[in-house]
Amino acid sequence: MTVPIRIALQKSGRLSEDSYQLFKACGIRFDYGTGKLKSVSSNFPAEFLFLRDDDIPGYVEDGVADLGIVGENVAVETGRQVTTVHKLGFSKCRLSIAIPRGTVYNGIADLQGKSIATSYPRLLGTYLSGHGIVADIHEISGSVEIAPSIGLAEAICDIVSSGSTLLSNGLKEVETIFRSEAVMIAHANLPAEKQTLLDQLLFRINAVQAAKNNKYIVLNAPNNAIPGISKLLPGMKAPTVTPLATEGWSSVHSVINENDFWENIEAIRAAGAEGILVMQIEKMIN
Ligand code: ATP
Ligand code: ZN
């Protein structure tokens, strides 16, 4: 019998829902959100542990879990020896230094000798020393953004996504020190059997991510326009061209990257395309 691969996910927070949806899109079923600490998949050799995100890199390093999903910020800050195996594209945020809005700021040299409150002393320390700055780093575990107003520190270093929390606390962002997204981390030395399960999992994740970034496109065009349109829509190998019931016309089916679609749509129309349909793809395997 296959020993299941153990995967640690955040119990509840900004990573939880997208992590769960990712496994769901990969066709891996398990109970989630029932308050349980552990759940076994009914259709894939995997079991899931639900934990605080900060604890996940440690569990993966120790081998209590084989895999985990965390923000890169947490993966790096904890300094644990784990392998980042895949970027997942969600929970995107940045770690930034902010100061009171009224303070003049001419550059990073202005932070020399200042006190900075943060939950990320390691990332901040590395950034500052890389820029030759010595500052007084105050490690605090939460509500970092109020530190300047209560006189605890002159600046902060914290997670920013929209910037509205900074704004409502009278702060302005002056340096971005790290950009983060959710990543899958793995134990450094997975046994061969678990590596095989990880490879199967990554194969599915790649198919889901490719599908998300691409669209299925169908259009009609007069036959003499087909060569020009085909050049614009190479698809996975070449577009499928089938005749329409109307003499002299064909239908073209292809796949196009979401970004390329918006860039090329005018050219596709100018080449003679009509009746363009664009549809979501559920899975895509090259
Ligand atoms: P826990 O209770 O598990 O310790 P937490 O409060 O430390 O949770 P969350 O706020 O749920 O953590 O954030 C988890 C991760 O999501 C962060 O480490 C970061 O990578 C990312 N993140 C944080 N804030 C945002 C945001 N505003 N937008 C997008 N991603 C974010
Ligand atoms: Zn946390």
Give your account of this protein's structure:
The chain is flat, with a radius of gyration of 25 Å. The protein has helices at 16-25, 56-62, 72-77, 121-130, 164-168, 192-213, 226-232, 258-270, and strands at residues 5-10, 38-40, 46-51, 67-71, 83-87, 93-100, 115-118, 136-139, 155-160, 171-180, 182-186, 214-222, 240-243, 249-257, 274-280. The protein has 8 helices and 15 strands. With 286 residues, it is an alpha/beta fold. Zinc ion (ZN) binds next to loops. Adenosine-5'-triphosphate is lined by residues 10, 13-15, 52-54, 71, 73-74, 91-93, 159, 161, 180.
Concise account of the structure shown:
With 286 residues, the chain is α/β, with parallel strands linked by helices. The protein is 28% helix and 32% strand.
Strands, total number: 15
Structure classification: alpha/beta
What about the largest sheet?
A: 6 strands, mixed
Sequence of secondary-structure elements: EHEEHEHEEEHEEHEEHEHEEHE
Q: Compute the number of helices.
A: 8
* Uncertain stretches of 5 or more adjacent residues: none
The Cα radius of gyration reads 25 Å
Shape verdict = flat
Give, in spatial order, the strands making up the sheet with the most strands: 2-3-1-4-11-5
Bound molecules: adenosine-5'-triphosphate, zinc ion
First CA to last CA: what distance?
A: 30 Å
Quote the average pLDDT: 96
The helix content is 25-40%
Beta fraction: 25-35%
